[in-house]
């Protein structure tokens, strides 16, 4: 059992490193002039969401809180990678080894979008609650 748990932990660790490298490569691809606009847009949204301390589904919500980290980010990466030409993505992967050595780049725009989504959801819930309470 201990050996199986160790193997599982190593697999998760390798996948996390691969995701980190892909995020770095997408960040570098976003900065290039030879990447199409739509690919840049998707790339920066994925990178911004992956690096943002604010999640669409907060981590403190049981089970669902980690769904975005485990499903949404890898799906976003796959989608963005498909939009970028293969030779460009390969170059960016080679360069991405040290892209986050100095820390994560800040993307306040994506963080602001996520905050706006949460404000809208909370306002909608509060308005529904107030209307139900008034009608009772």
Helix content: over 70%
The overall strand count is 0
Rg for CA atoms: 19 Å
Mean pLDDT: 80
Main location: membrane
GO cellular component, one term: endomembrane system
Protein name: DUF1232 domain-containing protein
Subcellular location: Endomembrane system
What is the fold's blueprint, element by element?
Layout: H1 2-31, H2 37-51, H3 64-83, H4 86-95, H5 108-135
Helix pairs in contact: 1-2, 1-3, 1-4, 2-3
Explain this structure.
With 136 residues, this protein is an all-alpha fold. The protein has one domain. The chain contains five helices and no strands. Helix 1 packs across helix 2 and helix 2 runs antiparallel to helix 3. The longest helix has 30 residues. It comes from Clostridium carboxidivorans P7. This is DUF1232 domain-containing protein. Its main location: membrane. It is found in: Endomembrane system.
